[in-house]
Amino acid sequence: MASLWINQLLQGILLGGLYALFATGLSLAAGVMRFINIAHGDFIVLTCYVLLVLTTTLGLNPVVATLIVLPAAFLFGFGLQRFLLQRVVGENVLLVILVTFGLSIIIENGLLEGFGADPQKISGGWLETATVALGAGVNVGLFQVLTFIAAVLLVAALDLLLYRTGIGAKIRAVSDDVAAADLIGLSSVRLYAIAMGISFVTIGIAAGFMSIWTNFDPASGPTRLLIAFEVVVMGGLGSLWGSLAGGIVLGVAQSIGGQFDIAWQTMAGHIVFLIVLALRPQGLFPKY
Amino acid sequence: MSMSASSPLLAVEGVSVFYGKFRAIDHVDVTVGGGEVVSIIGANGAGKSTLLKAIIGQADRVEGTIGFAGEDIIGRSTEAIVASGIMLVPEGRRLFPSLTVEENLRLGWDVGRKGEIGFADVWHQFPVLLQRRRQKAGSLSGGEQQMVALARALLANPRLLLCDEISLGLAPRVVNELYALIPDIKRRGIGILIVEQDIERSLAVADRFYCLLEGKVSLAGRPHEVTRDLVIKHYFGL
């Protein structure tokens, strides 16, 4: 009986890794540019479809396909910020919400038009089915473990980038005071675009793991946004390690809740989110 | 290059700056030579800070010409202007509070021209900043923050330094310390344009000055050539 709960706890922690992957890019963009990209989840799903095309029509290995997509994702995010979102940044937060909400609708309907409503999935082959036996009847999936490791590595890499590199210092400067950055010749327009490019790299990585982990269909985006949003708020806005912690809290809540009653899986996550929000509105690891 | 040797480092000619329909600066001419300290004085709203904004490329609509080292820089990005050798010490210091002192300084080095002024000079000139280099800039006192702002600007190795109200809100002792650095900056051949509310302080350090009144130059000259009464008259437009 104990092994059952330990199993659920572990599954929840590993699920938290996937959720952290959903959230890091959203947290980065929100922390630097102070707006929420409503289409974040839809861009993850869109990238899943791009990976689907690359793996099915071109027959690429999913890992190779993901690695090909990442640089393209950076350029796409850079361009999206530079040529579209930058036009509404700083004007009025409602405009950013409207524009990204519009993108969300366009992506969902475009995918529906192009691929139909059927759920899709990318096969991870042996990776998907391999398990790691931890003894005492506790088994975890190898792919789930790899996803969690990827989440930790991604957060660590972003942490290094932001706090140990020159470009990271510039991004944090713009996050501190965008007008002051412009006054001393730091181009906030370009730094915002770079930050969004990095956010889209995390979207590419999240899509790579999600497309093998679970089914996706054109309407999967908003759920991913909701998860990412809850994780970011629980972790503390703009805090990268907080996103990992928030992801684990949400993953464990869902996993344990689902063990009581499968219908409670999603609800348990939302309830824990509300409890955290009520007790610690600044998040678990507040940055500001 | 012979042109730039004879023409001043900065030549603001017939410059007007608009905020919407409002003309904040009206056909202003200002020059600054290399190694020269020029003060802009004037009451609140006279257009002093607006002039600095126009020079650094942060004003929305500018007419006229702003020659720097012989080239018109109107329309250039702030990034390009800073890289070509003009750096601003902004009003209110405008450090990045969550960045360390050293990170703030490094930004100045990164955006500027690469030149002779390096971190060793800054640590030598401001020993207190060396001690505090790993501290967040937001945790420093006002005077120390102003030192960081000035050091950040110097690390950009400017040929022209713009100082906007560097004494504002600081204790006189700290202001004296900051102004004591000006002769050394001059000696390096850097031109300095100072905007300051404090007329006495501003005129004491300047080689030449301009007094702005409602967006126009109401008086210009050398501080020792004018009387205090004359300056006051043109300062308030009496």
Q: Can you describe this structure?
A:
The complex is a heterodimer of chains A (288) and B (238). Chain A has a domain of 195 residues. Helices cover 75% and strands 2% of the residues of chain A. In chain A, a hairpin with a 5-residue loop joins β1 and β2. The longest helix of chain A is centred in the N-terminal third of the chain and has 32 residues. The model of chain A has no long low-confidence stretch (mean pLDDT 93). Chain B is of the alpha/beta class and 238 residues long. Chain B folds into 2 domains: 162 residues, P-loop containing nucleotide triphosphate hydrolases (Rossmann fold), CATH 3.40.50.300; 64 residues, no CATH class. Helices cover 37% and strands 26% of the residues of chain B. Chain B is built from 11 helices and 10 strands. In chain B, α4 runs parallel beside α7. Chain B is globular, with a radius of gyration of 17 Å. Chain B starts with a helix and ends with a helix. Classes of the chains: A mainly alpha (288), B alpha/beta (238). Chains A and B meet through α7 and α8 of A and α3 and α4 of B.
List keywords for this structure.
heterodimer, A: 288 residues, mainly alpha, two-stranded antiparallel ribbon, 12 helices, 2 strands, 75% helix, B: 238 residues, alpha/beta, Rossmann fold, 6-stranded mixed β-sheet, 4-stranded antiparallel β-sheet, disordered N terminus
